[in-house]
Amino acid sequence: MASFLFIAIMFGNLSAYARLLDNNEKQRYAANTAIFGGIDPYSIELKNFILPLDELPRITSEAVTNFLIFRVSPATQAEIRAYKSLDAFTQFASKWIEDIKALKINNSFCVIGKVMHLQKINSPSLNIWLSLSSNGDILNSHCDCVAGLGEACTHVAAVLFALEYVSKQEESVTDVLLDRAKIQEKFP
Ligand SMILES: [Zn+2]
């Protein structure tokens, strides 16, 4: 009874998407939302994501690299290295990202992103979320692509690269997204 109640409470705030995950994945997913008091970012209405992106903590390349090394599967790491080795990760990131929004929850930050499907151009965009600590550590992430169940994939990486780029350039994400059209012209 007690464990049933615990599960009911734990899964009570999950989005329809998360409720369809298999049991192990669902428990892991729910645990990753603990930082937000158990609120699933996918269940938060978009209108609540009102934090200006320049108020996010600074994301260093070290934080991004650490996160990706520990979270991303070796196959995806190879893919990301290929992009990085082309020194094209900035265009890679900004070319595919459709939107990034942020919200402060407790002492952490929730970032959501909409990213084009890299492998299947005509498929619906993918939705990612990530949690950041107040000092810019990347805590957890999720993407609704198949690889995203492993909690990091090229779509998460794209958003991280964009945030890292913005921190470096002291440019706003909006400027980067506006530059996307120019970048697409340069790298068709
Ligand atoms: Zn993904």
UniProtKB/TrEMBL annotation:
Limits of the SWIM-type domain: 128-164
Signal sequence residues: 1-18
Coiled coil: none
Keywords noted in UniProt: Metal-binding, Signal, Zinc, Zinc-finger
Domain of life the protein comes from: Eukaryota
Gene Ontology molecular function, alphabetical: zinc ion binding
PANTHER family in the record: ATP-DEPENDENT DNA HELICASE, PHD-TYPE DOMAIN-CONTAINING PROTEIN
Protein name per the record: Uncharacterized protein LOC115889031
Top-level taxonomy: Eukaryota, Metazoa, Ecdysozoa, Arthropoda, Hexapoda
Gene symbol of the encoding locus: LOC115889031
